[in-house]
Amino acid sequence: MADREAVGLRHEDWAVADRELSVVPRLNANDARTKSATSRTIPVSAELIRLYADYMHIEYGDLDSDYAFVSLWAAPQGHAMTYAAVHDLVRRLRRKTGIDYDPHWHRHAYATRLLRGGTPVEVVSKLLGHVSLTTTTETYGHLTAEDARRTLGRRLVRRHGGAAVIEPALASQCQEHAGFPGRSCRTLAAMRSRSTSVPERRAGPVPVRSRAAGRRPRGRRRR
User: Fold this and answer.
1) Fewer Cβ neighbours under 10 Å: the N or C end of the chain?
2) Domain limits for position 143
3) What is the DSSP string of 73-137?
């Protein structure tokens, strides 16, 4: 979720029981806007739900507002927090802690973690609210070849009838994010297939067959 979307969240957008958060395009008093003109639902963690509950109980208190994030202390108190107010808060925190930080980094870190974990780029694009899949691939095409290799090693190849088959969605992700040609992916699948089909040898001494043991018993000569 973008920071401009976060300041436009309403209490009704939080589905606490389902651990979901809805991003709804609407007119907001603080000019907050969404990334796309269509609504989307984002799964959230139980920890985030607990943090939201603590925020409402400890800090939000008796303030009366439809917006989830409001001005708690500065005037006008209880009004929806603006985008400029968020960045002013971030600037003060950076000055106080000495840590270089930007709220938009959370969005980049979230997308990168999903892609490195093997989430299809189509799913990541929907969660981010991108209108076009190209926007996702161009923005988050900074994944290294090593990241792609780790993803491929875990999820690219599936077994089907004793043969290794490349998943189409994952092969597409490989080509788009790492610049790997399809032939390289197929080669990796073939190598993976050979490595899994050969049984592992057990360590230990190799039995040596003696010459005497290898001879066939001679039959008795006829007289």
Assistant:
1) C
2) 107-197
3) SSSSTTSBPPHHHHHHHHHHHHHHH-----THHHHHHHHHHHHHTT--HHHHHHHHT-SSHHHHH
Residues 6+ apart with CB under 8 A from 133: 121, 122, 125
As a whole number of angstroms, the distance between CA 192 and CA 185 comes to 10
d(CA 106, CA 102): 8
Same domain, residue pair 87 and 168: no
Query: pTM for the complete prediction?
Result: 0.59
Number of folded domains that form the chain: 2
Half-sphere exposure of 88 (CA within 13 A, CB side): 7
**123 and 192 share a domain?**
yes
DSSP class of 44: -
Q: Is residue 219 part of a domain?
A: no
